[in-house]
Amino acid sequence: MVEHFLLVCYPMQSHINPLLQLARRLVHAGAYVTFSTAVSAHRLMFPESSSLNLPLDDPVHRRLSYFPYSDGYDDGYDKTKHSETDYFATSTIMSPRSLHSIASSPYTDDKPAITCIIYAIVISWAPKVAADLGLPAVLFWIQPSAVFSIYYHYFHGYKNLIDSKSTDDDLSYSLQLPGMSPISIKDLPSLIVSVKSEVDVRNNWIVDGFRDMFVQLDLERQRVYSSSSSFSGSVEKKRPMVLVNSFKALEPDVLFPFEDKFEFMTIGPLLPSPPTNSGVPRNIVKETTTTMAETKEYMEWLNQWPVKSVIYLSFGSMSILKKEQNMEVSRALRDIGRPYFWVVRGDREGVANVENGMGMVVSWCSQMEVLSHNAVGCFVTHCGWNSMLEGIASGVPMIGFPQWSEQPTNVELMEGTWKNGIRAVVGEDGVLMSTELSRCLETVMGDGERGEKIRENAQYWKKMARLSLKEGGSSDLNLMSFVKDVAVAISLVRCMVGTDRISPDGHILSTLVKACTELCNHRIGKQVHSMFLISDFFNDDVVKSALVNMYSKCGLISDARKVFDDVTSKNDICLTAMVSGYACNGFLSESIGLFRTMPWKKLKTWTAIITGFVRNGDNRGALNLFAEMRDQDVTLSDGHILPTILSAAANLAELALGKQLHCLVMVSGYQNNLFITNTLVDMYAKCSDITTARTIFNSIPIRDTVSWTTMIVGEAHHGQANLALTLFDAMINQTKHKPNEVTFLVLLQACSHAGLVQKGHQMFESMVQNYKIIPSLEHYTAMLDLMSRSGLVSEAEAFLKKIPIPPDEVMWAALLSSCERSGDTNKSIAIADAMLSMKPKEPSTYILLSNTYALSGRWDCVAKTRKLMAEHHRNPTGLSWETTA
């Protein structure tokens, strides 16, 4: 069955834009989508459309249609005529009623029925509609992940603190939230910091909408999956799914504290498509629709300017600057003397006339098209999240002039974390003065070191954004995974309450559990478990065995054990699943205990427990179990266990045992198995027999990437950097195989140990430019070590400053060793001090600092450092043999 998503959002341009992009991405993934916003916004999007009672099909995307809901104000809200209080009260009642009718529409020959509702922020009533109809509901978070964290914690324990600091005007107070860097109160979303009297109703309604939304998510988490049998003791909560318009590289750690509460999927940045004349929906802000002729005019104007010379200014679809502010911006643009392209909404009072053709002022433009133009060198923005993402994806440095909502947080992330722009500081009256804007423009576009770094970072984040969206990128994979998850969920619902109302039998349930195991999706797996418990087949041991395997593979070992204990007749499949689950999840004693109780042990069971021992580092235990298996004459009917046991021998560097295992491979007839052969190469290399490793590698008729990388790793670890590089050249020139992250890491380390500085730089550049591999912390560390070992202190220090991720103590240690080799004592001390501040409780850091002082003859500092170390690391009082004798 094909999925049919109903996408719902509040009638604001900043909400509509990302949801439209998500709709198109879902259609591209093969789904049907119905897009729904309020009637008033729908009319502005499609002014030629007359019918509001039937879906309007998109002229470009066949599976996309538009069906508006009524909020009770179909002609639009007019603040001069309508009460805000009445509007919000009415829309809260009318909108869900209307959406219920849309979502419950029956399927047709052209489209299936709605199968899932995706709702944007503030639409807190949408999940209630979904629950009434038995549909899954998914939140689409259209702001940064960091803002999700802030709102969540505001409603979960931090409200009183934030409110008190806001009331006391203690806006510089530094707030530490889980998973986030410290953030000042003034940089939190304005809706929860300060509320102006004239917008109390609107702001309070929005904040209430956020609160209700989190209440709905909490309620969804409270739903347990089981209610009967011996499994009823489980209180495992459901993790609601949340789609986020961000990407993994941009906010890698913010969502970690929520892993047990929500299932997040970053799917951004969702960027606008190029403008066309094909009848796609217009913007809902009246003056924000441009004709193709107007677009051509401003694009031709941009074409005349040099690369990165034009200042682009736009302050969003809601902000209309006052006359005084327009005058200050005009003055700054005149003083800076650079060409500018300025989008001005509403009255242009205070906007200076353009002189000498240096500027262009328009009421609206295709922002993504403008930002992508190579003439644009700076983006002065209100820091709305859509604009921020477009700036990031275009690689344009930004100057932030936040207005309200999450924009203060966005600008803090931009300046403090991503460092691809700067904040413009406003006066107490909220006005951005011309001198401050001029300073910012000169910083970002000038020749200074800070501006150069900002521009470098902007290009880096552009690359990261593009990589996340390309096929196989993090956001692309997440969206594909989401669609597959929903597809499985739909299959479950159809099995449970199909059109013919036939309940699923044990075979169907078992198959569905296996599908969830393949996806490693315990969330949907628990839905199947719940269906199983209330079905007529609740005692089916085949299904229970499948559940044991599913929970084990998903790491929920206690749940697996509860199901296991409920199995009446435990066959070898069920026992093996539980043994494997214990072993692979680190419970080796429990695994071996259960294993010893088994009356029979097939090869799969031996393979499962031995694999678990090797994965958890107990190589000796794995080898002992393998010897026991051989003593019991278990036939090697498949070779799955051989790579695992070869790895155990390699990890222990036991060459004699490795040779015996090699003989077993030959006798058993698996010498042509590529996976096993690759493992043999690795084993001989790790056991210091590089000659035999080369012989086996050369005998492989058709090698894969693993074969080449394994041999390259072996040569590098034996100090044969030139041979490793020769193999790399052969791999890329003579085969179609592409090197991976491990290949490059080993080559960089080999270059470092061999002193091949230039070759190491070439490798690093090739990895990034030619193979589009994002460097990890290990790659950066290898490059630092390469320069440090060669005494290139200045180059290493400059490289460290350019790294887009915070350096760790290993990087600093590499730089420190370089300074010590060159005799730069002062710099060594500074670096050691920095390391000490990073890990004040690490004894080795004190030792490093003490040794550095000793090299410079500063014995008083040596004594102080050792005293500090003694104070921080006092051992507890204990007993010795002397005192007990």
How would you describe this structure to a colleague?
With 885 residues, the protein is of the alpha/beta class. Among the domains are: 145-194, no CATH class; 286-469, Glycogen Phosphorylase B (Rossmann fold), CATH 3.40.50. Helix content is 55%, strand content 7%. The protein contains 37 helices and 16 strands. The strands form three sheets. An eight-stranded mixed β-sheet has the order 3-4-2-1-5-6-9-10. It has a six-stranded parallel β-sheet with strand order 13-12-11-14-15-16, sandwiched between helices. A two-stranded antiparallel ribbon has the order 7-8. Strand 1 (4-8), helix 1 (13-28) and strand 2 form a beta-alpha-beta unit. Helix 27 packs antiparallel against helix 28, helix 28 (721-734) packs antiparallel against helix 29 (741-754) and helix 34 (825-838) packs antiparallel against helix 35 (843-855). Mean pLDDT is 83; it is low at 195-199, 224-237, 275-279, 496-502 and 874-885. Belongs to the UDP-glycosyltransferase family. Keywords: Repeat, Transferase. GO terms for molecular function: RNA binding; UDP-glycosyltransferase activity.
